[in-house]
């Protein structure tokens, strides 16, 4: 979530879904909201009924497009060109919300001399190191100071022990409030996007100039004091090698139009799993600790305090990160964490730059990872390059799979496509596999954090049957057993596990641990054992304990706030008494921005939170996302740090400067401004720069993950089409919960491929027949759906067809079919290590795929033919960083 | 049964008595139809739940009778979903008690060609043993450059976006304490 | 007669046969202009009514794989892909020629119609008229329901439905290339007929039908038919003012061949486009009168006997 996190301060949707009804224009892009979030989509329909314009920008015409005022079809992977064109439209026509931009964003800040733009270096920013294939991110810093981003790779460019570098008083030292200085962010932005003209957008994206301009005008028309607009996105944006930067472009648009923090103005990140937000808040992610604290790396920080300063801003509420961190260590190691032992800081294992899941798969393939636990995920189908995923599982010593049904990640050793093709067999796979049946949501207590940061408790309805157990039970009992085995060890490495606070009350025959007790630990206690009401009460002296500082308050007053269910008809639309939203039950974050710098609502129509001078506090319909009694006129002392460095007119309280970041001077590894690059695999050159694709993307040298040749290389004509993968309403992700369910299987009972009639004619594909889709990784088959909905686009004067593939299927379940992800590659985005499955290249041919060894022959033969052509041609661009 | 009741239940007599000479309305109502009640009315308990599929967070009500879920439907009180569900949410019960759900531990030994049965507790012991052994065998106190590491790169863990916060919390806490850093989930966004 | 009587197009046997027990006539207004084709209605219906899965058959008919209303599918979402615009451009309104209207440089017009179809609960219901066993009846809510404890599977009602809704239960459909499933061999369904009951049991308990409750966008609206008809009229006016292409009501008119639907629709094209009959007529239009004579004759024969018991039985 560093796209939102670096821009605004927090890695979460800025608003609640219901507030979409207050939007005057809604752009849905990188999301098929009607299909994948149908119930949330009711709020889009409410807005449409109230007269809002709804625009769907997408390579495909989907059920969302069918409901939109207009669908604008674009070529997959050209989102930044499109959005950058909107930025250009706003700036070149002076349509930005000037007061908002001047006061609430970093438009006025002067950027340091070392910064050079892609416009001056043909697609590379300053600081590019071709040998390391990475940027020196310090060249992007503000003039006269160094700031940390509130999210992302916050340690980058800061040496351990560097100490506080952020400006005292929070204000960057060099600014131009007239926004005229050529090195101020506003002017840099203007120059950076000047070439993203409507004509250029149409040429790159394949949409019409007319549709694009109409969209720009709808956005601008619905901006300002009286009107607001919202943007909804999902993994259609994230799953690109430039995914984070796409989201950043949306953040720039929303800041320029003055939408963030205001009713009906938001960026809504639509998440695909029940608690995907929760699993980043309490991260089961290698590079984070709970509450978006950076996981310490293999560096000698010196101390916990020094690590905190090296990895978080010292201004704003991250200025108190030491309190969050010490409280976390107290939650984990209790009385064993003391000031004397630096709060057990050395108990934390250290991570490398990249220990992400795709790196791990590479390590598995090379035999370096021995054991693996999979809980509620199906990488054999859901991760890019399914063949590599399954081969990797087959090189483990042991594997635990926990799921409701026997998914492909558990059965790969006897029924995978590789077993069918004869590449491997049970006799050649040495992995010991434990399949452990899991509990369904109806069989356990616990909380999910939904897409709007709202924690909602669910109660157990029935006990799980036979061996089925919750993850809570599994990890708790597993920890107990491991503690038992290590209790007498004198090896210092076992001390963190021996001393771990690991006692939760259990109940019933199954000895299910109490989820509520765990939630209490997450919320935290003071030194008297009282539940804390807010993260502002956390201390760095060891007197408080808190398992996730942003969740502090979810058990305020000893009440499970996540379980509150006051009906919506008994409260205002913000619904503060239903569940609990982090932080501090604020539903529309940065809502200080709903008032002008003086604290008055921008307009009656868009009133939400404002300064009440009589009561001397912020009041309104939502919990103010601001210190309640800090007046708009407050100005920090010049040496102030932490929250005290945030002025009364700065709504972005997590940021080092309290401002919305149009330009991100730190936190991202691939640039301070979004720039159009082609996908890793693309049949097109980059019309804007010689640099074709994101130079910072992470490639690999795995034999199991070959790439298709791309534009500028010979052989790209072997894979001439762009394929995009997606979900359908009727199924869920890799299908574990739906392909095995009768009522859903009958609604979408077979894998299919969607193609336009012209492409069908071009390739001899017959509606209802079969097609085989081939990449350098694999080939799968699918039934052919010929449809106008796969609208062709005109790119650089030529008609271009795209191929659509849902990715729900695999070899198991009630309905089976080819796994689209088998076709995808593992070149990943450099900030968040996500796969690029929304745009890669393929070939498509009529008929079913060959069976047995002939499948391997088909894939290898085609690859060899392509590579033979490529090897004759010169490589068009420098190698990017390789992660293996 | 008295003759009157017998005859009274004859369709035609019933039709006439109930003013429904064509037998299309009340007179045609069978005893079962008269007594008909929605099955949720007979539920022993109703659990407040949340849909397990996407992240919209629709509220559900799970009706339970005799220890079994008999119906799952939307909770109208929710300000987000207002009682509505998509097809996946509406199929929650079908997912929960689907024909392919697994309830027993299955074990596959290295190079084995079939699943074997295994007691749950034994499986837990074996997994705990594996973790301890692999961790010992692959422990890395410092990196090659001598920087602190305190970890194992020999074990990984995947999953979490479908799980509860409390489950993710215990997972992260335990694995971090064990020095397992390759903890990852679907949320790579 | 109660004061619940409809001014026109009142169904036979409702509300009069229910006396004080009669409830307002309930129905569905399915507004396809806000249908997102998610099929929650199909699933919610199956979950509530415990309807069997109807086989795994990929049809290639857009996103529709359940194909039709039948004994195993009581809500069915139709998908229609069209080269038409959703809204009429002002310039096209005059000529009315919008089907092929394209703008220079813009993409081909395209719209994707979705409609959740259901039993119409006709005011004059053919199925009900021909049912010889009394399995089909008009409920106190004015809806038409099959009583499975009475139905003997004679199937007379099947051809009597002008919409092809009511159907005898069949084994799950099989894909043409599917291997025969052994567990289905030799199995037969009992042949009783099934269709939407407008969730009669839920209505009796004060709950709305499962499909309407689940519908994410409120495309399926449940309520008192009078109120729904009024709402639909206003809705049509709004859509027409917004230049929606082809907006019209279907089954709204009490003067049509089935006396109006208890479950009616707002469509965005001709009914045929959705696979609906343009001018449905109840095939038993003249039957009630015939049956009425028969019934009266029969009644006369037994009147003496019956009166003895009815009058003095207690």
Tell me about this structure.
The complex is a heterotrimer of chains A (884), B (189) and C (314). Chain A has 25 helices and 27 strands. By secondary structure, chain A is α/β, with parallel strands linked by helices. A six-stranded mixed sheet of chain A has the order 21-23-22-27-20-26. Chain A has a five-stranded parallel sheet with strand order 3-2-1-6-7. In chain A, a hairpin with a 4-residue loop joins strand 18 and strand 19 (617-620). In chain A, helix 1 runs parallel beside helix 11 and helix 5 (79-92) runs antiparallel to helix 8 (198-205). Chain A is globular and about 75 Å long. With 189 residues, chain B is of the alpha+beta class. Helices cover 32% and strands 24% of the residues of chain B. In chain B, the strands form three sheets. In chain B, strands 1-2-3 form a three-stranded antiparallel sheet, with no helix packed on it. Chain B has a three-stranded mixed sheet with strand order 6-7-8. A two-stranded antiparallel sheet of chain B has the order 4-5. In chain B, strand 4 and strand 5 form a beta hairpin. Chain B is elongated. The model of chain B has no long low-confidence stretch (mean pLDDT 93). Chain C has eight helices and ten strands. Chain C has helices spanning 40-49, 90-95, 126-130, 157-160, 200-204, 210-214, 225-241, 287-312; strands at 26-31, 75-82, 111-118, 136-138, 144-146, 167-168, 193-194, 220-224, 248-250, 263-267. In chain C, the strands form four sheets. Chain C has a four-stranded mixed sheet with strand order 8-1-10-9. In chain C, 47% of the residues are buried. Chains in contact: A-B, A-C, B-C.
Instruction: Give the helix proportion of chain C (percent range).
Output: 10-25%
Shape of chain B: elongated
Shape of chain C: globular
- Based on CA atoms alone, the radius of gyration of chain B comes out at 29 Å
Mean pLDDT rating of chain C: 85
Helix count, DSSP H or I runs of 4 or more residues of chain C? 8
Order of helices and strands of chain C: EHEHEHEEHEEHHEHEEH
- The CA-CA distance between the termini of chain C, in Å, is 26 Å
Given the helix and strand composition of chain B, which structural class is it? alpha+beta
Outline the biggest β-sheet of chain B.
Answer: 3 strands, antiparallel
Low-confidence stretches of chain B: none
């Amino acid at each position: 979530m560093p796209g939102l996190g670096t821009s605004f301060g927090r890695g979460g949707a800025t608003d609640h879904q219901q507030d979409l009804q207050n939007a005057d224009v809604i752009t849905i892009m990188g999301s098929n909201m009607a299909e994948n979030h149908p119930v949330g989509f009711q709020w889009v329909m409410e807005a449409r009924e109230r007269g809002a314009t709804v625009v769907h920008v997408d390579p495909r015409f989907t059920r969302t497009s069918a409901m939109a005022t207009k669908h604008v079809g674009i070529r997959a992977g050209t989102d930044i060109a499109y959005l950058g064109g909107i930025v250009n439209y706003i700036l070149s026509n002076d349509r930005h919300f000037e007061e908002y931009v001047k006061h609430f964003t970093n438009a006025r800040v002067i950027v340091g001399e070392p910064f050079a733009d892609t416009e001056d270096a043909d697609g590379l920013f300053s600081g590019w190191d071709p040998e390391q294939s990475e940027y020196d991110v310090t060249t992007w810093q503000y003039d006269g100071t160094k700031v940390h981003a509130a999210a992302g790779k916050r340690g980058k460019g800061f040496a351990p022990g560097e100490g506080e570098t952020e400006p005292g008083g929070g204000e960057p030292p060099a600014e131009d409030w007239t926004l005229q200085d050529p090195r101020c962010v506003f002017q840099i932005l203007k120059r950076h996007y000047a070439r993203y003209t409507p004509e250029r957008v149409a040429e790159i994206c394949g949409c019409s100039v007319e549709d694009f301009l109409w969209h720009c005008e709808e956005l601008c028309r619905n901006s300002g004091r009286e009107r607001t607009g919202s943007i909804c996105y999902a993994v259609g944006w994230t799953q690109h090698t430039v995914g984070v930067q796409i989201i950043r472009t949306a953040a720039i648009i929303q800041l320029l139009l003055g939408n963030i923090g205001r009713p009906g103005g938001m960026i809504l990140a639509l998440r695909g799993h029940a608690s995907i937000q929760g699993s980043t808040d309490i991260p089961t992610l290698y590079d984070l600790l709970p509450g978006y604290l950076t996981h310490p790396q293999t560096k000698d920080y010196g101390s916990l305090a020094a690590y905190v300063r090296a990895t978080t801003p010292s201004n704003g509420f991250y200025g108190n990160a030491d309190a969050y961190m010490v409280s976390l260590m107290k939650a984990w190691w209790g009385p064993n964490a003391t000031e004397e032992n630096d709060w057990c800081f050395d108990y934390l294992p250290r991570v490398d730059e990249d220990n992400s899941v795709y790196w791990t798969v590479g390590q598995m393939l090379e035999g370096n990872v021995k054991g693996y636990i999979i809980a509620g995920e199906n990488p054999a189908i859901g991760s890019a390059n399914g063949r590599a995923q399954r081969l990797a599982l087959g090189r483990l010593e042991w594997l635990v799979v926990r799921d409701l049904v026997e998914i492909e990640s558990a059965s790969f050793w006897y029924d995978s496509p590789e077993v069918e093709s004869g590449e491997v067999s049970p006799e050649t796979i040495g992995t010991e596999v434990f399949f452990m049946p899991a509990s369904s949501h109806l069989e356990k207590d616990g909380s999910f954090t939904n897409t709007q940061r709202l924690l909602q408790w669910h109660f157990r309805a029935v006990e799980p049957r036979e061996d089925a157990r919750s993850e809570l039970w599994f990890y708790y009992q597993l920890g107990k057993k491991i503690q038992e085995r290590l209790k007498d060890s004198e090896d210092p490495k076992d001390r963190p596990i021996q001393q771990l606070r690991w006692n939760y009350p259990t109940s019933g025959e199954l000895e299910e641990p109490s989820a509520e007790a765990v939630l209490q630990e997450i919320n935290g206690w003071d030194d008297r054992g009282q539940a804390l009401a807010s993260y502002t009460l956390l201390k760095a002296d060891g007197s408080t304990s808190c398992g996730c500082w942003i969740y502090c308050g979810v058990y305020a007053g000893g009440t499970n706030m996540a379980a509150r269910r006051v009906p919506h008809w008994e409260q205002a639309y913000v619904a503060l008494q239903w569940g609990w939203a982090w932080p501090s039950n604020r539903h529309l974050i940065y809502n200080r921005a709903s008032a002008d710098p003086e604290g008055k609502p921008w307009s009656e129509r868009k009133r939400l939170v404002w300064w009440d001078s009589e009561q001397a506090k912020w009041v309104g319909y939502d919990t103010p996302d601001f210190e309640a009694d800090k007046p708009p006129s407050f100005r920090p002392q010049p040496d102030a740090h932490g929250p005290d460095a945030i002025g009364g007119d700065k709504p972005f309280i997590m940021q080092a400067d309290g401002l919305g970041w149009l330009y991100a001077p730190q936190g991202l590894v691939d640039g301070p401004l979004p720039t159009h690059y082609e996908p890793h695999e693309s049949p097109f050159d980059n019309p804007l720069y010689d640099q074709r694709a994101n130079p910072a993307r992470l490639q690999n040298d795995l034999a199991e993950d070959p790439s298709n040749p791309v534009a500028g290389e010979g052989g790209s004509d072997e894979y001439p089409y762009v394929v995009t993968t997606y979900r359908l309403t009727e199924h869920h992700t890799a299908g574990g919960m739906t392909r095995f369910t009768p009522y859903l299987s009958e609604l979408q009972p077979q894998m299919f491929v969607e193609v336009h009639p012209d492409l069908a004619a071009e390739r001899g594909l017959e509606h209802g027949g079969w097609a085989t889709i081939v990449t350098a990784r694999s080939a799968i088959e699918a039934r052919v759906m010929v449809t106008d909905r796969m609208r062709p686009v005109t790119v650089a004067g030529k008609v271009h067809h795209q191929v659509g593939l849902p990715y729900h299927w695999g070899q198991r379940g009630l309905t089976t079919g080819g796994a689209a992800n088998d076709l995808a590659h593992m070149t990943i985005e450099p900030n968040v290590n996500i796969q690029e499955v929304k745009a890669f290249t393929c070939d498509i041919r009529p008929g079913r795929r060959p069976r047995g060894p002939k499948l391997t022959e088909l894939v290898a033969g085609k690859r060899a033919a392509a590579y033979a052509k490529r090897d004759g041609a010169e490589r068009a661009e420098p190698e990017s960083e390789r992660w293996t | 049964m008295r003759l009157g009741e017998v005859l009274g239940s004859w369709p035609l007599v019933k039709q006439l008595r109930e003013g429904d000479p064509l037998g299309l309305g009340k007179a045609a109502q069978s005893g079962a139809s008269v007594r008909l009640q929605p099955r949720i009315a007979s539920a022993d308990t109703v659990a407040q739940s949340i849909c397990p599929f996407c992240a919209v967070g629709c509220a559900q009500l799970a009706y339970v009778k005799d220890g079994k879920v008999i119906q799952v439907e939307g909770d109208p009180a929710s300000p987000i979903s207002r009682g509505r569900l998509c097809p996946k949410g509406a199929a929650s019960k079908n997912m929960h008690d689907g024909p392919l759900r697994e309830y027993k531990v299955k074990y596959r030994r290295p190079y084995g060609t079939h699943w074997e049965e295994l007691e749950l507790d034994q499986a837990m012991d074996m997994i705990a043993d594996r973790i301890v052994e692999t961790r010992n065998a692959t422990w890395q106190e410092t990196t090659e450059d001598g920087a602190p590491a305190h970890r194992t790169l020999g074990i990984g863990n995947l999953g979490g976006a479908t799980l509860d916060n409390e489950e993710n919390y215990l997972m992260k806490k335990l694995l971090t304490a064990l020095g397992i850093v390759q903890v990852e989930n679907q949320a790579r966004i | 007669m109660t004061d619940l009587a409809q001014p026109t197009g009142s169904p036979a046997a409702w509300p009069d046969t229910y006396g004080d027990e009669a409830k307002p006539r309930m129905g569905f207004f399915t507004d396809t202009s806000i249908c997102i084709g998610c099929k929650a209605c199909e699933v919610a219906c199956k979950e509530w009514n415990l309807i069997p899965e109807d086989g795994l058959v990929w049809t290639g008919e857009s996103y529709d794989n359940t194909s039709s209303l039948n004994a195993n599918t009581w809500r069915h979402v139709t998908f229609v892909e069209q080269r038409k615009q959703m809204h009429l451009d002002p310039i096209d309104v005059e000529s009315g020629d919008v089907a092929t209207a394209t703008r220079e440089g813009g993409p081909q017009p395209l719209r994707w119609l979705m409609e959740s179809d259901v039993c119409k609960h006709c005011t004059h219901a053919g199925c009900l008229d021909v049912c010889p066993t009394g399995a089909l009846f008009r409920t106190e809510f004015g809806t038409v329901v099959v009583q499975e404890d009475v139905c003997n599977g004679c199937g007379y009602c099947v051809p009597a439905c002008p919409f092809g809704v009511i159907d005898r239960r069949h084994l799950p459909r099989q894909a043409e290339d599917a291997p025969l499933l052994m567990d289905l061999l030799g199995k037969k369904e009992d042949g009783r007929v099934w269709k939407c009951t407008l969730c009669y049991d839920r209505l009796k308990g004060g709950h709305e039908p499962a499909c309407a409750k689940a519908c994410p966008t409120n495309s399926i609206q449940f309520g008192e038919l009078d109120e729904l008809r009024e709402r639909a009229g206003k809705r049509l006016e709004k859509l027409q003012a917004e230049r929606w292409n082809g907006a019209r009501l279907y089954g709204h008119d009490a003067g049509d061949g089935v006396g109006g639907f208890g479950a009616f629709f707002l469509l965005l094209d001709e009914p045929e486009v959705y696979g609906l009959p343009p001018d449905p007529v109840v095939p038993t239009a003249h039957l009630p009168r015939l049956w009425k004579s028969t019934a009266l004759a029969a009644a006369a024969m037994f009147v003496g006997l019956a009166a003895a018991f009815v009058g003095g039985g207690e």
